[in-house]
Amino acid sequence: MKGLVESIRHAFRKVKGELEDHLGAINENSSDIHEIHETVSELDHKIDKLAERLDELELCVNPKKFRSLSSKLTPREQEVFMALYVGKSMSLSQISKRLGFTADMVNLYLFNLTSKGVPLQKELLDDVLVFSIDPEFKDLQARRNVLNIDPRVSKQMVAQEF
Questions:
Q1: 11-14 long-range Cβ contacts below 8 angstroms, 24+ apart
Q2: Phi and psi dihedrals of 154, rounded to 5?
Q3: What is the Cα gyration radius of the chain?
Q4: Structural domain boundaries in the chain
Q5: Architecture of the domain whose range is 75-161
Q6: Residue 27 carries which DSSP code?
Q7: Rounded CA separation 152/34 (Å)
């Protein structure tokens, strides 16, 4: 009986040793993963900084690419802008339905956005005029908030999207 108990203890010690080896390898891998994550985060931050600098350089080299905004957007203009921002291409009726505005109101706000320098694109799809935001401007807005969109309006429109 003593021999059996001793062989079981030996087997358990062997298993314990193997488990400790595995635990050591896991801890080592975890620290490697953590170091890689920190490096990737640091690189991501540096890429964001470079993108900001490139935006600044592009605006200096080509200041007319996006005309400067002539005045601040009203809350309703911000809502129409954000509807297009999160909803991609939309017709007047789609925008008015989404925001609860009349088509005439939406048309006026789209005109105001264009007048204030917001680059909107118009396209005829299936005999319906649809509006969208210039993709480069949309990217610039995402990175720099050049329109100074009220965060409450942004949150409200993004929440409505989902």
A1: none
A2: -60, -50
A3: 29
A4: 1-65, 75-161
A5: Orthogonal Bundle (1.10)
A6: H
A7: 35
Q: How far apart are CA 95 and CA 106, in angstroms?
A: 7
Contacts of 110 (CB under 8 A, 6+ apart): 80, 92, 95, 120, 131
DSSP labels, 44-83: HHHHHHHHHHHHHHHHHH-TTSSPPPSSPPPHHHHHHHHH
**pLDDT tens-digit profile, the chain (162 residues):** 888 888 888 888 999 999 998 888 888 888 888 899 999 999 988 887 887 788 778 767 776 655 556 678 999 999 999 999 988 899 999 999 999 999 999 999 999 999 888 999 999 999 999 999 999 888 888 888 888 888 888 787 767 664
| pTM summary value | 0.61
Task: Report d(CA 102, CA 142) in Å as an integer.
Answer: 28
Please name the residues in contact with 84: beta carbons below 8 A apart, sequence gap of 6 or more. Answer: 90, 95, 120, 131, 132, 133
Phi, psi (5° rounding) for residue 148?
A: 50, 50
What is 75-128 written as a DSSP string?
HHHHHHHHHHHHH-SEEHHHHHHHHT--HHHHHHHHHHHHHTT--EEEEEETTE
128-133 and 90-91: which strand pairing? antiparallel
